[in-house]
Amino acid sequence: MSQLSPQPAGTSLPTSADVARLAGVSRATVSYVLNNNTTVRISDSTRRRVREAAADLGYVPHAAARSLRAGHSRTVLLPAGQAPAGALYQRFLTQLELGLRRLDYTVVRYGGVGQDADEAAMTWAELRPVAVVSPDDLALTPYGIGVLTRSGARAVITLGSQPVDGAHALVVDQREVGAHAVRHLLARGRRSIGVVVPQEPGHALIARPRLAGALRAVEESDADAGVRALPLRYQEDSAQDLASRWRTLGLDAVFAYDDEYAMLLTRALQDAGLVIPGDTAVIGAGDLMLGRLLRPRLSSVAMELTCEQRPAEMIDRLVQNPGGPPERHHLLRPAVVARESS
Amino acid sequence: MSQLSPQPAGTSLPTSADVARLAGVSRATVSYVLNNNTTVRISDSTRRRVREAAADLGYVPHAAARSLRAGHSRTVLLPAGQAPAGALYQRFLTQLELGLRRLDYTVVRYGGVGQDADEAAMTWAELRPVAVVSPDDLALTPYGIGVLTRSGARAVITLGSQPVDGAHALVVDQREVGAHAVRHLLARGRRSIGVVVPQEPGHALIARPRLAGALRAVEESDADAGVRALPLRYQEDSAQDLASRWRTLGLDAVFAYDDEYAMLLTRALQDAGLVIPGDTAVIGAGDLMLGRLLRPRLSSVAMELTCEQRPAEMIDRLVQNPGGPPERHHLLRPAVVARESS
């Protein structure tokens, strides 16, 4: 008869041996059941007994010990998902985290603030992840990828505008956002198009490709049109300064980087006496609810991050079959929502 | 002479034995130097030689192995910091992460989406953290705290409105935001005050204490005033519906939960023909830049999260000296920014 009482307070955590004893099975059986190993034939009643014993004892496996035993971990590192473009990534990463958890991975969010890419790769490698999704604001180097791979990572995946040699890529091609905005403005007959470039340093990674996409859209069109970069800080005085030079610049349209900068600039243009969209068409990006409250209502490039294969299953596949050629999957689906401002 | 070439490509990671061989010292010396152990006397030149050898080889310590050896880890779990109130927490958590990294902790962000508190505690315990900061949207139970403590966590700290028995608390008392807003409206002579309560489920944890604080501010005042809860979804039709009933409700002021809901409601009230602040004063919270673009400019409760002791050092102290009584530290510093709307 077992002498174990469930959950003895104040003592150390129960081990898998305790679970085995309470359930009356071997440690191997406990391991098979709790790791959902279905290759070994174990009756449903035994599986249930092991699960109940683990629950009664409050058994917590040790991820570190488990990964040392197994030779590789089930840990996947995801970026913590800071701003900018936070909202766009946040929902995607939350879904990805849920999907990976369902596939029995341990998901760890990693910030990497204040580190360069190689430092970050070293810190990540310390956790011996089996897969790493690297955020856009850290441009992984071949050195960092090597450190991660040699520490046991079977899949290194970048998430963002810039694929990196030797890593898989979930590509969020921000150029498409700029291209969609400018194609829309050209279709509305606008020919002299400003493109807002935020001066806050964190935005450069998104602003640069959006501007490049805007330029490309003009080049690819038959229209005799031009694009001009408009540096802007997210401050009223910066917007007022830009608005005061608007007539001199001779612009008849602006892609304002995103909806927040668009709201800032719209207010300043209206205060400077310009009529929207009569004098100047305005389009943002992100399709914020707040943009619909503007008068005129703000046009915007709506964005979604989706993928043919569910990203969690893709990562699982890359982990199961390492060594294949780097894969590229495009996630960003932009779509113009034309309202009154353009 | 050493046969080791730095960074052999494609092979497995170098071990501390490799570092010891290249530096010509013992493995113990490598361990002392790389763990910044200053209790052992080691010359500066030896320390430098070890560090250079580690850098040349691309040596990455294994956090899991290190924590198994040491008996406890240097891993601190922080919440991933999802919305709502994301912006408020994000800067705080980023600073905390940097501070902990400087103190040589490994910081891991943990989401916990889709898990209940006990499940989350079990998953966290698998990583054997030495300290856990638990987010507001997971109400840790004594059971969960027990699991974490027995798995080696020396400090379990909640971050949010609700302290939990048996854990330290970084208290973000949202009641103070509601109280500040309503005290301001009372001081402006308003007596019939609506308080917006968002209907989106994620907001309940913040909306409830903000409403409670608003009620308390009226109770504590001498004024013959009343507070009324106003359910609102973050949608134009919901705001229009509320605005159409505004005169019947007889409200002369509203604390609109935050600046985004305030912008939504302001637009609907103005479209319904109400004059702000003449008919109704409006105040939000969060002090967003966009609120300043409204006409009239939006009043707001600005918020900051600060602490007498630096939070990273506080956590380090709690880790060094476990077993003390639960500590409470209030982080939220609200301040009314009165503009034109109130």
From TrEMBL, chains A, B:
Name of this protein: Transcriptional regulator, LacI family
InterPro entries named among the record's database cross-references: HTH_LacI (IPR000843), LacI/GalR-like_sensor (IPR046335), Lambda_DNA-bd_dom_sf (IPR010982), Peripla_BP_I (IPR028082)
Annotated ranges, domain HTH lacI-type: 14-70
SUPFAM superfamilies named in the record: lambda repressor-like DNA-binding domains (SSF47413), Periplasmic binding protein-like I (SSF53822)
The keyword DNA-binding appears for this protein: yes
Sorted UniProt keywords: DNA-binding, Transcription, Transcription regulation
A Pfam family recorded for this sequence: Peripla_BP_3
